[in-house]
Amino acid sequence: MRRKCIEGVKRVQKNAKRKTKLKQQQAKQQKHGACLAGKLRTIVPDDSIFNSIKLHGNTNWRPSQLAMLALLWAMAGSRFVTDAFSTAASASQSMFGSVPVTTYQGMMNALIRWTGSFMEVLFKQLQSCMQTMSGEFYCVFGYVPIAFDGSRCTVPRTTANERKFCAANYGNGAYAKATKRKGTKIKPNRHGTAHHQEPQIWITMLWHMGFRLPWRWKLGSSDSSERNHVMEMLDEQEYPGNSLFCGDAGFVGYHFWQKIIAEGYHFMVRVGANASLLAESCDYLLQPDGNVLCWPRDVRSKNNPIRLRLVSVKVGAAEVWLLTSVLSERKLPKAQMIAFYKMRWTIEIEFRGLKQTLDCAKMCCLNPSRSLVELNWSIAAMAVCELLALREQIRMHSRKRPRSKSSWRPQRCSLAQTMRAIRQAITRPEAKPAFGKCLTAMLEQALTDTYIRRASKKSRHLPRPNKKALQPPRVIVLSARERKKIETLKCKTAA
Fold it and tell me: Is the pLDDT at 125 greater than 80, yes or no?
């Protein structure tokens, strides 16, 4: 009996010590706002990163303050932009001790003027953080893999937005002429609505395939050219020398490929019947790999052909033709090309996260300039949140790696759970978290589910058209006359 009493007393003392230790650890934990402020400071440390931007002498705010407020505004996740500003202003006051601008109108007027300059600084900060996080995911198979693709976000149907973002021929087509005639009935399309175009913003994004993070982006009207956007982004900054740009079938063309090669980078794109190439040997079609030439007729008088490598690979059940500027099969084997192509496809998940998780499928602002500001900072907020989560998860799994082999990969990072943790810190900056529930722990645990899905996610009701088999590119054998012309151009270039 006495022994049981002694054991009971020891158990009570042990529980008391454990509770005291938990309380002490909880007391040492930072508040949500302080923890988030420290993490954001690693990306936007101070005003020194904005030294290249010259401000007006009468500005009452500092660039780092305005950038932090804009990020908090885009992260807040409120349904209305004014409510999001109120939440962001309250969080900024709690986290940084000041609010650079006190009204929503003041913030928007400042961002309309300075968002373009701020984005260039933020691009460099994001890229620098990626480079220092983990070389294992930054450089894949010896290349820095960067995908490019485009998508659209809808904006409210105002007159200003239609003039800014709709196609150039909008208002001059059959729909506009028919609506001017009284009593004319417009035949609805298959969705049950009249044929008309919604004002949309085109997003062209460069996306790091190893970290699955936005590298940089460019916005334009709904009829913008993806290839022109990418060519402009190639001019706007320098990229790592071992960059490999990966794209889908829309990124084809002599001038586009020549631009990437002239800058000293490599590319790999999927091609189909929309590409016309020249084979250097008549037995090309019998070879598993072979060099081909891209030499359109309109450039043959002055420009040399581009020598590329065309490879046919199996991705799932489909046969896909990949064209790359890496001519050596040893430097870019077929297995690595398949891996890069599969990695490139997941940029579509990034666009889905932007439109669904961040609810940016349709912007709220009625003014074109404000719509561009809203979308720019929404993408920036998504990139910053994903970067913070990836950084914590890499640190956690690097500590576990010496003990056991970790199976963690960047694709396990969950944007939805990351935004949930960030928004909790923004809405409750003064709250002190329970032990194990701090922002760092929540970001470490922001992972996708690992269960095996038993049923398909395909819709049962939406009719899907039968997909046509992918067609190979048109490969024409190089004629003797064309060979002679190439030799003449080579001699002129050498001279």
Answer: yes
Question: Per-residue pLDDT for 190 more than 50?
Answer: no
CA 129 to chain centre: 15
32-36, 152-156, 196-200, 246-250: which range is least confident on average?
196-200
Rounded to whole angstroms, the Cα distance separating 379 from 71 reads 10
DSSP 413: B
Q: pLDDT tens across 262-293, in order?
A: 999 999 999 988 787 877 654 444 445 578 88
Residue 31 has what DSSP assignment? P
The residue ranges of DSSP E strands in 385-477, in sequence order, are: 474-477
pTM above 0.70, yes or no: yes
**Structure tokens, 28:** 């040492």
Buried b (16+ CB within 10 A) or exposed e, 342-365: ebbeebeebbebbbebbebeebbb
DSSP 365: -
**CA–CA separation, 126 vs 217, rounded Å?**
12
Element (H, E) at 26: helix 2-28
Measured CA to CA, the distance from residue 422 to residue 439 in angstroms comes to 7
Strand partners, 214: 207
Whether residue 112 contacts residue 365, with contact meaning beta carbons closer than 8 Å, is answered with no
What kind and span of H or E run contains 153? strand 144-154
